[in-house]
Automatic annotation (TrEMBL):
Residue ranges of domain Moybdenum cofactor oxidoreductase dimerisation in the record: 307-417
Higher taxonomy: Bacteria, Pseudomonadati, Pseudomonadota, Alphaproteobacteria, Rhodobacterales
Record's protein name: Putative molydopterin binding oxidoreductase
Coiled coil regions in record: none
Spans traversing the lipid bilayer: 27-46
Amino acid sequence: MDNHSHTDTPADAGPQDAPIRKDRRRFLRTAGLATAGAVAGLTIPFERHMPKGMTLAAFADDSPLAGKDGLTLLGDRPVNAETPAHLLDDAITPTERHFIRNNGLLPDSTSPEGWTLTVDGFVDNPMTMTIDDLRNNFEVVTRALHIECGGNGRAAFDPPARGNQWTVGAVGCSEWTGVRLKDVLEAAGVQDAAVYTGHEGADIHLSGDPDKFPLSRGIPIEKALDETVLIAFEMNGEALHPMNGAPLRLVVPGWPGSCSQKWLTRIWVRDQEHDGEKMGGQSYRVPAYPVAPGTDVPNEDMVVMGAMPVKSLITFPMNGAESGMETEVRGHAWVGDRTIERLEVSIDFGATWAEADLDAPVNPGAWQNWRTSVSFPQAGYYEVWARATDSEGVSQPHAIAWNPRGYNNNSLHRVGLMVS
Ligand SMILES: Nc1nc2c(c(=O)[nH]1)N[C@H]1C(S)=C(S)[C@@H](COP(=O)(O)O)O[C@H]1N2
Ligand SMILES: [Mo]
């Protein structure tokens, strides 16, 4: 495993801050990178000589990608960044390579100091707990768990779908430490009427309106009581990265990433499907029946996304690389609520397939690592394709099952190679 050290975790403004930084941090945090100087109200006499896109040294750790390594920034308001496939090669995704998907702006504080989580609604004992309460009153577990954004792969939709144009890298499998949501819900005493959770976080709506949530999603109570679902306060053995939900978040492996509420403040147990921000309309919803590409689907025919489909990624070699006549090919495969049974690789555009060596998940909810070695018959351009099959015999398709908002694209990952 590739363990990059990272000591430059962007903490919130502290008293140790140099004066130039203090009052301008908030502006910078909420402004676009390009306009950082202007929005912070700084006069920069030699601005005309500044290389385009350069960030200001005095505010270096305000960069949305501080503490991240090699991510592709898709947008900075809100911050969205994906990881190139070849940087997802580690069995466990290092924090600096875990993607970022935000719907709003970071909370004013991401410090564990004074943070509380409330569990209420259809429970016998509503509770408000600090992070220490969680640590002290419940079994603390560490698990490798994969999170994939429901819109990962959207960039390949045709006709295109609105939203972040993720290619393949809005996925990761880090090691999360926390307590089981199940244990906390059982302590709260889930009532018979409970059917769904509703999650709330402390992030700030893009409008700045304190009464609006950027995102508030939930999961069916049966899934919430699944032992893989964690309320996490550590990522890869350290505090959570601010962009990944510090100091507290849910991790719901195998379900759309949006279920894994970051900056978690409340779990509201409900007697109906949660109706929070981005639960309705076309958000994180897919047509209840297959539709032709480009179809306009009415809201009432859309259903909330559940377990994610079978999928795999080639993390070595890198797309477009040069290769010798023989190479190792490796990557990961995952599926929501099932396991991967088989991983096959093709070097002839899918005419023939050879089975790769596939690991079992290190624990339920972890992605599965695979590797194989391929030999090419002669020099030239090849494509390596990977195809996973899950425990129900379902394989990845060649084509995208089109839907209006560009979710669930689990079509085959392909890597082109120049072989000599
Ligand atoms: N509070 C809050 N939680 C959130 C989000 C958000 O915008 N706000 N984005 C969700 C989405 S859409 C995804 S895909 C995952 C991404 O987690 P990551 O940013 O740690 O990779 O966080 C989810 N949790
Ligand atoms: Mo997402």
